[in-house]
Design goal:
alpha/beta; seven-stranded mixed beta sheet; Metallo-beta-lactamase, Chain A; 9 helices; 300 residues
């Protein structure tokens, strides 16, 4: 099933050259007023669909991955205690597509177990036989405890149906923040690689730090997905990336296309898409940054 975006993606020439001819053709078609189909299901070539928050559908190497599923209806959960705007209920916005389409995948990647990345609705709706890739043995045991029968642990050399997946490290806040709020815990990212395809690096719930810098150096990604909503716990610096972190990633990987995710869906994410776009324009890297709306699909 195909869906036309209400606001078709428009890429600059520089973005089009980075993402390839398919993206440029889609942009050109949009500029000419032609229909630019964006698919919820498996598309042609490698694609990334921004579902909601950090939930992504990544079609890569012919394999359909679902990342960090948050599937509850709008307003199901209370806001995170001790965080910015905690009076708001999560998720802040509805899903942009039917759950059945979101779940039409080959495997699920869970970067960590926080409830805005792996929620009760996902546990209830996902088939218990679905392959699930977790960041470590501890998370795998928790997921298995929910009845899932094919839970695997990501490593730096995982392969799934021909796609190479390398777990990368991250840090969900500063050292002082992690000492003060231990439940923030361990998180991971993932680098996707296949011969002949662009390397995609999903950084996960992390701030800019040496872990991210190392991943960029080791994997040399063409496309980098950043959780860039600038989530704030009251009294502490942000626990995921904000404007300055995104700029730091661009400076470390100036030839990569950056894709901003994890925005405008959870109470403590204080950075809006419009604010990040304006910042990138002021700092001169807007042509390297894509900020998809919920439901929007990009060719990667």
């Amino acid at each position: 099933m195909l869906r036309n975006n209400d606001t078709p993606t428009r890429l600059s020439r520089r973005q089009a050259l980075k993402l390839g001819a398919g993206a440029f053709a889609a942009s050109l078609a949009a500029g000419l007023g032609l229909s630019t189909a964006r698919s919820w299901a498996a598309g042609t070539g490698n694609t990334l669909t921004q579902v909601r928050n950090a939930t992504l559908r990544i079609n890569y190497g012919g394999v359909r991955f679902l990342v960090d599923p948050l599937l509850a209806d709008k307003g199901t959960y209370p806001g995170f205690e001790g965080s910015a705007n905690s009076e708001l209920r999560n998720p802040l916005v509805p899903l942009p597509m039917p759950v059945d389409h979101i779940l039409d995948v080959d495997a699920v990647i869970v970067t960590h177990l926080h409830s805005d990345h792996w929620d009760d609705a996902a546990k209830a709706r996902l088939p218990k036989s679905m392959p699930i890739l977790a960041q470590n043995d501890e998370d795998a045991a928790v997921i298995s405890g929910s009845g899932f029968t094919d839970v695997r642990v990501l490593t730096e050399a995982t392969e799934f149906n021909g796609v190479r997946l390398a777990k990368t490290a991250g840090q969900h806040g500063t050292d002082d923040t992690l000492r003060a709020i231990p439940p923030l815990g361990q998180v991971c990212g993932v680098a996707f690689r296949q011969p002949g395809a662009k390397t995609l690096y999903l950084a996960g719930d992390t701030i800019w730090n040496s872990h991210v810098e190392k991943a960029i150096t080791e994997h040399r990604p063409d496309v980098i997905v950043l959780n860039a909503g600038k989530a704030v716990m009251t009294g502490f610096p942000p626990i995921i990336m904000g404007e300055a972190d995104v700029l730091a990633v661009h400076r470390a990987a100036p030839d990569a296309v950056l894709i901003a995710s994890h925005m405008e869906a959870i109470n403590h994410c204080v950075l809006t898409r419009a604010e990040l776009r304006a910042f990138s324009e002021r700092e001169g890297f807007a042509s390297s940054l894509l900020i998809p709306a919920d439901g929007e699909t990009l060719r990667v």
